[in-house]
Write a structure and sequence with these properties.
Layout: E1 5-11, E2 16-19, H1 28-45, E3 48-53, E4 59-64, H2 74-87, H3 89-102
Antiparallel strand pairs: 1-2, 1-3, 3-4
């Protein structure tokens, strides 16, 4: 599948955080943790951080910057993405499972 579903986005340029309303039923603790991690990420790395699901339900983290932002460090942001993926691997795994079951209608496999 080629479509993507945004879970949340933090934008350091506009100093805004967005949580897709389709995920309003996530536990408050999870929503707060996502917001804190995303905002802290963009405060440190700059740019924009998107957490999204691909068409197969895999959770992705994508960073970008506005054109002409020479302060944005793409390599540093990539390293920070890997660190965040490692630190929050359990959360991201559970979110992917949630998405696959609730949005894609897949069966939950007991791993």
């Amino acid at each position: 599948m080629d479509y993507e579903t945004i879970l949340c986005v933090a934008n350091s340029y506009k100093r805004k955080y967005y949580l897709n309303p389709e995920f309003k039923h996530l536990p408050e603790q999870v929503k707060e943790l996502l917001q804190a991690k995303c905002v802290l990420f963009t405060e440190e790395a700059g740019g924009i951080l998107e957490i999204l699901f691909d068409g197969d339900g895999e959770l992705l983290l994508r960073t970008s910057s506005e054109e002409g932002d020479f302060a944005y460090d793409e390599i540093g942001a990539g390293l920070m993405v890997r660190r965040l993926q490692s630190e929050e691997s359990e959360l991201f795994h559970e979110l992917a499972l949630f998405y696959k079951v609730v949005f894609l209608g897949e069966e939950a496999d007991d791993e």
